[in-house]
Amino acid sequence: xxxxxxxxxxxxxxxxxxxxxxxxxxxxxxxxxxxxxxxxxxxxxxxxxxxxxxxxxxxxxxxxxxxxxxxxxxxxxxxxxxxxxxxxxxxxxxxxxxxxxxxxxxxxxxxxxxxxxxxxxxxxxxxxxxxxxxxxxxxxxxxxxxxxxxxxxxxxxxxxxxxxxxxxxxxxxxxxxxxxxxxxxxxxxxxxxxxxxxxxxxxxxxxxxxxxxxxxxxxxxxxxxxxxxxxxxxxxxxxxxxxxxxxxxxxxxxxxxxxxxxxxxxxxxxxxxxxxxxxxxxxxxxxxxxxxxxxxxxxxxxxxxxxxxxxxxxxxxxxxxxxxxxxxxxxxxxxxxxx
Length: 339
Hints:
By secondary structure, this protein is an alpha/beta fold. It is elongated, with a radius of gyration of 25 Å. It contains 16 helices and 6 strands.
C-alpha cells in the first residue's frame, strides 16, 4: 500500500497494528529519521528501547546473516508490550529477505520499520511494500509540510491555542526551515514559554527563530527595496564573507522585486494583493512589502527587474567582470533610485 501527504502523516502517528511493516524512504535523511522516530514511538511506546522491545538492524547486518531479521521479528522480550524491529539503510538487495519476512509475519510478531534513501520509481523494495497487503510504503520528498503536519508538530511541542497571526508566522517558518530545524525551534519556543501564561507573539517567534544566511540575504534585499543605500555595501561584504555567491544575491533580488511587481499591479492595491501571494509572506513582512510596492510602483518595479535580469545574464555569461562588484553596483543603483 502506498501512502502520501496527510494520509502518510496520520499513519506514522498511529500505525495499523495488523500491518507487518512500514517502509519510509527519501533523499532527505532528516525527514526520514523524524518519521521513523515517530512511527517507532507510536508502535512501541516511549519505553520500547529501555524495555528491550526495540531491535535495531542495519542493511549490512541482514546481508551478512539473512536469518537475523526473522530471528529479531520472532524474539520475545522480558517486558510485555508491542515490539519493533528497525531496519535501516535498506536497499533493493534486501527485497527478497523482506518479502519472506512479510509473508511469514503473524500477529504478535514485532512490526518492521524499514528506512531507506531515495528510491527510483521501479525499485524492488518500493514495489514490494506498495504491493503487500500487510505493509505500507511512504515516500518523503522536499514538499513543504502540510497544515496537518505543522499542527501535529505544534501539538507535540505543547503550543496550542495560538493567536491567528502567531500561527501564521509559525506556518511560514515551517516552510522556510528544514524539518529537524523546525522541530528544534518549536522545542526552544516551548521552553521559552514554560509556565508563561501570556500568548505567544509573532515577535517572539522571530526572535527565537534560527538566524541563517537567508536572514542576511533578506536584510540586504530589504535595504535595497527601502532605499537604504548606506547599508547595502556592508551587507554585501558580510554575505560575501559567509560564502554567498553573486548569483544567489541576484536571484534573491529578482524574486523580491517580482513579488513587489505583483503587488503593485494588483487592481485592489498592494494590501489586497498580499492575500493572493503564494506562498503567503510571513506576518512580520506584510506591511513592509505593501509599503515597498506602493513606493516603487509598477514602473519602478519593472525598471528594477530589467536591471536585475541584465545583471543576472552578465553573471552567467563569459564576461570577465567581477561578479560581486556587478551585483553590488546593481543593488546600489536601485537603492539610490529616486521615487
